Amino acid sequence: MRHYSLDPADPVSWLYLEDRRAFKLLGAFVRAGMGLGGVWEVLALLRILPRKVQGILYRAIARNHYQKSGRTDLCSLPDEQIQKRLVQ
Fold it and tell me: Which residues on neighbouring strands pair with residue 22, listed in sequence order?
């Protein structure tokens, strides 16, 4: 993550690697959603926003995420169908 100027200790950081390309923050979230398919593909619409607006939107969502869902030491595992899509 440091190679891509992201802090690995920051839980708000997202890094998604696909076909030797790196996607960060909202771009990573969008690409992961597109890879999951189904309703998650709607996230692709966010790509039309300018990168600066994407960054502001991502940070606002990430900042408020913990207020809405709380903080935990461990992430929950996705169900088996989603795991099949993520693990190759």
Answer: 17
Domain range for 58: 2-86
37-41, 64-68, 71-75: segment of lowest average pLDDT: 71-75
pTM (2 decimals)?
Answer: 0.59
Q: Give the residue from 70, 62, 49 showing the smallest Cα distance to 13.
A: 62
Structure tokens at 70: 């709380």
Residue whose structure tokens are 């709607």:
42
Number of domain units in the chain: 1
Tokens at 18, concatenated: 């696909």
Structure tokens at 5: 């100027």
Contact 61, 30 (CB under 8 A): no
Q: How far apart are CA 11 and CA 45, in angstroms?
A: 24
